[in-house]
């Protein structure tokens, strides 16, 4: 899947200085259960490397976003994750100050009322459609 860049100073605070970041990120991914098996996570100086087997390309994308939307993570690489080929057309978007899911839906999907499509495509990444933050990366389903 390649390399994704993230804003290291933004995101969900998941670990402190005495925690094992790789283990905390792995626990978060497994708790949200996007559909990845045999998951292994390594963390070094803000860089996360994922390996395992994804049930779908969507599961792989969600896994990368869950890992990347953690405070302290600047890059995520998932080249070692096997996944089926992506069939759906997807775009990635970084939330900006003042954004709402409705505004993003209007911009990408043509109607603000289509915001539930974006929320559903990111359910493991966005827990509440009213709680998004600048710097957070999400998937935009274009099909």
UniProtKB/TrEMBL annotation:
Give the source's domain of life in one word: Bacteria
Domain named BON: residues: 17-85
Start and end residues of each LysM domain: 91-140
SUPFAM superfamilies documented for this protein: LysM domain
A family per Pfam: LysM
Protein name stated in the entry: LysM domain/BON superfamily protein
Question: Which organism was this protein described from?
Answer: Candidatus Thiodiazotropha endolucinida
